[in-house]
Amino acid sequence: MTTPVQLRPAESAGRRALWLAFASAVMTLMLPMAGLVMSIFALVVSVRAIPALRSVAKPIGTAVAGIAVASAALLFSIMASAFQLYLRDELSAYDECRRGAGTVTAQDECLNRLEDAMRKKLPFVEPGQLRFPFGP
């Protein structure tokens, strides 16, 4: 009877780092604050995978790709989180308005108020340039 082949942790470190990096990118698109934490974790795992892969003479390409993907996800999550924090008052006012809106017309009015509030907070956006195809 043969025993199943098991990879040593060092040999699978690159794949694990890359999968965590992709998971952090997906998490960043869904929940930027959670993506921030996941990206930091993926970055640490990816950096720690390089010496582990070198110790067993394996290529480090997957770990380097994990570092690149996790770094991009981290940068994007920082920017998205900062943007959400900067516009938190406007977004919470929109949420309250939307909860009280009983008709489609009232929901559209809430969206128009959000666009106006964001236009005031973002001076580089010209009138008519900010239009949501659907509500956030």
Overall pLDDT level: 87
Radius of gyration: 22 Å
Instruction: Work out the strand percent.
Output: under 5%
The structural class is mainly alpha
Global geometry = elongated
How do the SSEs run, as a string of H and E?
HHHHH
Q: Helical element count?
A: 5
Largest sheet composition: none
Our measurement of the CA-to-CA distance between the termini, rounded to an integer number of angstroms, reads 59 Å
Number of strands: 0
Low-confidence stretches: none
| Quaternary | single chain
**What proportion of the residues is helical, as a percent range?**
over 70%
List keywords for this structure.
mainly alpha, 5 helices, 73% helix, elongated
Q: In words, what does this structure look like?
A:
By secondary structure, this protein is mostly helical. It is 73% helix and 0% strand. The protein is elongated, with a radius of gyration of 22 Å. The chain starts with 12 loop residues before the first helix and ends in a 15-residue tail after the last helix. The model has no long low-confidence stretch (mean pLDDT 87).
Chart the SSEs and their pairings.
Blueprint: H1 13-30, H2 32-55, H3 61-86, H4 88-100, H5 104-121
Helix pairs in contact: 1-2, 1-3, 2-3, 4-5
Summarize the structure.
The chain has five helices and no strands.
